[in-house]
Amino acid sequence: MYNRTLKSPLEKLTGISCLRLAVAKFHLHPYAASFLRIQIKSQYTYMYPGYNYTYDYDLGVLEVNDYNVLNTSWQHYDISIVDRYTYYSADVFLEFSATTYQAYIAVDNVEVTRGVCQSGKNDCLKHLL
Question: What is the DSSP letter of 116?
Fold first, then answer.
């Protein structure tokens, strides 16, 4: 088993945004397995005299899990990000967590644009929170 978690840099977002990315799984054995979890999180920092507090809350989750699949292909995902608790810009980041057994996972072409996702293909999360 191989486990890894990576965090993206903070990105300031306002209103509705579209996250686009591509995911490929490379399975090397008939009993291979791969588990990918991408969490979209918003980070807030409250500062008062003598008191600083930072917390994160989830805006959504994308999970891509495969077992016993030998083919390799890129899957494209479009995810609309809506933070209904924030009426001003928020610091948002992605947290990628992967666990693999005799397999590799690749994530590529990650981009965030303003507005709702328009493509409709694999729009896995229309409205988060």
Answer: -
